[in-house]
Amino acid sequence: MTSPVPSSEPAARAVSPHTLLRDGKYFRLWSSGVAANTMRWLEMLAVAIYVFDKTSSPSMVAFVLFCRQAPMMLFGVAIGTVAEKTDKKRLLLAGLVTVTVVSLTLGILLVTGRAEIWHIALGAFISGVLMAMDFPVRRNMLGESCGMDRVGAGMALDATTNNITRMLGPIFGGLVLETVGLYGAFFLGAALHGVALALVFGLKYEQPRRASDGIEKPKTGFFADIIESIRYIRGQPVIMATLVITIVLNMLAMPFNSMVPVIGKVELQINAILIGFLASAEGLGAFLGCIAIAYMRTQRFTQVFLFGATIFLAFLLLFSFSTWFWLSWVLLFLAGLGHSGFSVGQSTLIYSRPDPEIRGRVMGLLSMCIGMQPLGVLHIGFLADYFGGSMAVTIITVEGLIALGACWLLWPAMRRNEAKPAAKT
Fold first, then answer.
1. Distance CA 110, CA 194 (A)
2. Chain-centroid distance, C-alpha 139
3. 206-251: pLDDT as tens digits
4. Which pTM was predicted?
């Protein structure tokens, strides 16, 4: 016998973004994401420009950014597995303390003239561990604070966190680098992570009880838990498609960011401040798109996800052909609108679809899929060495559109509002 088939997406309750922000627990988690992610994007742009100025090598820029993003690929699943059995608040606090110390150390090394490129790369790698915690730890806690009836609006609003910071981070990064120097960016980062640390420290949080709590279950090992989660998603076509499309966009769309400083310096011939302004365009578009989705209260997240991914890639392709600064800015802004649908759909589907007992591991798998981006960064970096920054973006976005089309054909569940498989009783 089966239970009634639940709806394919989380049930909607009338809720608006400002209602969520009045929830103290949600507000602290959301605000800590704003503070930490601002530094993420500020640092990525400032470091990219700094490394390119020092080495004149696009592939070296790509390598340092690879170090920043590699922990998601390496540790995403492991963090998700650990987070299911450990206090998530303590994990998040440990990550924030570590990154604050790293930012202070790099700032001091730069001020004293002792910093080397390998110091920057190592610091980027350590900071990347905090980024790897975002989905399986912070966003999991965020979903718990919303409840399933508000998770769509909650994830849409949280997606604005990343997009606000992708808008403001590059602007501040270019401004600080041009007026103060890279050490100023790291000292600012230490302050921002300190704010996030204070917000999370004051959070009242208890690990939620699951339906299976109190039921004696056979003990399983760390790797057995990971294998179980992989087997689980193979039977969930929407989850599987979401993860694969996430890999596609993180390898063949997101790496365009690493080429914005190269394109700005070499082809548009603009300074660091204007490069930061250009890099902020996509974040602005994504921010406004996420706000629109939050107020629309749509429940068709599979279509939002797939359509957003398509628009994102299409406008990045057009951006790669532009030689005018303002046209480039507008095209990146439009690409950001597509990115908003992709990011909101991604977070909502991966949180709402899995069973609660396995949700942390599935979100850890999502973190690992996002962590494939460094491979794309290396790919675009080597292409740029041979063909230039703009042509490198052209090549990867064409590859991305082809791969996305293959996913569209392979998983028809993404083209309709298909119900989640019924649970056996």
1. 20
2. 11
3. 766 654 444 444 555 566 777 777 788 888 889 999 999 999 999 9
4. 0.68
